[in-house]
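@channel sequence for tomorrow's demo:
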Amino acid sequence: GPCSALIDHRASVRVTTTDTLVMTHLTPIFVAFREAYPEIELEINISNQMLLLTKREADVAIRPTFQAPENLVGKNVCTLAVAIYAGKRYLQRHRRIEDLAAHPWIGPDESLAHVRWIRSLRKSYLNLAMPYRLNSVLGMMQAAKAGMGLAMLPCYLGDTEPELVRMRPPTLEPGNKLWLLTHPDLRQVAR
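structure tokens (generated this afternoon):
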């Protein structure tokens, strides 16, 4: 691009994002970026925790969050939908699923309690049995595929899996947004 001449040959951009986004959408985008800007190295930090861009642990964050932290700048890319999924194996054993609370759920552990759609799940279904909890949304998806029970997942992830079936129409939660964020000091940096 036009800024390539301004970029140091060993420039790198550190991006923090989630495992689910790398698996579903971001890898092809990173491939295209590397083809367009071969002089820029990409360092991807996969984490479900919000790294502090102020401490320069990352230059750019691409992640779902309710709102951009006040000390960062960026743009809301889209609102994310979530839905309840079950694996085809589970549905073979339980033909009719009417009362969602009567089934075992695959849930997030406390480390994911900050994720807004997960808080909403807990509020909507107070007495869910969650005999299997993980600190990874990908792990939740794998457990649902394996027939362990029901799981609420982002549609951008659940819909990519032919072994999963949506149990209810998706919900667009107003606070469930995907953000592209950076530190204000980095906005004018060529890379």
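heads up for whoever presents: Residues 4-8 have pLDDT under 50 and may be disordered.
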